Write the structure tokens for this entry.
Amino acid sequence: MSTTRVSEYDAFGPWIVEVFAPEDVPRLFRDHALDFDSARLVLKVPRDIARRDATPDMDLYDYLLVLDPGRLTILKRHGAGSQGRANATGQGGYDVMTVPSEQVVAIHDVVSLLDGTLTIHTSSGVAVSVGYNGSARANISRLVDELRVAATVDPPGAVGRGLLAAARTVGGEPMRLEPGPADRSFVSAFGGLSHANPDVVAWACHGRLNLAPRSSGFHGVVQRTMHTLSPMTLHGGVFASDGRALEVLGRHQWLVRGRTPDYSKSRLVVPFSSLERLEVSGHLVYEEATVVTMTAGETTVELVVPIGSEAERILSAVARVASIG
């Protein structure tokens, strides 16, 4: 058994590790040419298996993420996400996906307990997702920050300029973050965001809201009773920007049914240069909710915010401009 193989096995854990040299690249990906002098960030993402289930003959890393000037390259192990001894050395292989920076129209990083997913949306409508252990989110956040910089080189388009103008005239800057006791984590998340990028300013903030369906008659009575037993929650969020991209901090979904506590964390980044259309409409079921649809190329991103909230007023102001809608 080679020294390299033992070293990779001995070092295995849930950590996402930055790679600085060829000898630190997981052996599965070593035949892929890498230029460490030009790469801005290289990360290796381990398989989501317990340390006790790992063996020295396994390929122990699911992904190698390489951010170069102008592109993100994702090397993905065949069968990434599988458990046990599947795809051990000699039985696997990997796919290579390349995402040019100018095609990145949204970046969405979500963690629910230890289940993390980074999704990169492109102008062609393709979404590339990377699963990871949520305890290792710090390096994924670094990747999001770096990719955000690369994807916001171009100036804001018409919709982006509209959002910036609406934030100045409707929202006002800066604003106090008061989402309520259940969502204080948003304030901490914004603090980390603004620490990494001091130019980020909060535009809007709202806490969670219980929603009742708009149904009438007997059906409405039944629906409202069911919602009393299993309420629908419109989760809160923070909307912010540094003038180059929209940052939205929230939960893994806007609308969540039930009484189970939701401790998930979500960060959505939408470059202003990529936005082409913004539409606002009332929710079909919940009259206190507004649905916001942002379009960039073939990708659409949907948000749900409370009617009358600061976020709804800013986004609606942009949607009312005929030349944008």
